[in-house]
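In pairs, describe these two lines:
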Amino acid sequence: MRTYVRMIFHSEGADPAKVLDAMRSVGFEESMGMHDFVYRWKDRAAIDEVIHLVTTMHASLKGLDVSYEITTIA
């Protein structure tokens, strides 16, 4: 199971390196292609666990002024 994040940056937002640090601190890895980051679950996760991960990610991105799109695939 994986959770993917696609980031949308703009010139008034944080430096992409700061976003990378924030995402790594939550457990995401950078990815190439359609998505910018991926979280690789060890086991199949319940929806509550996915929501908890996304809430933690959201908090770590607060103030960085980026937009994101999330996709989780079982």
Remarks:
- The radius of gyration is 12 Å.
- The mean pLDDT is 96.
- The chain has one domain: 2-73.
- The first strand starts at residue 2 and ends at 8.
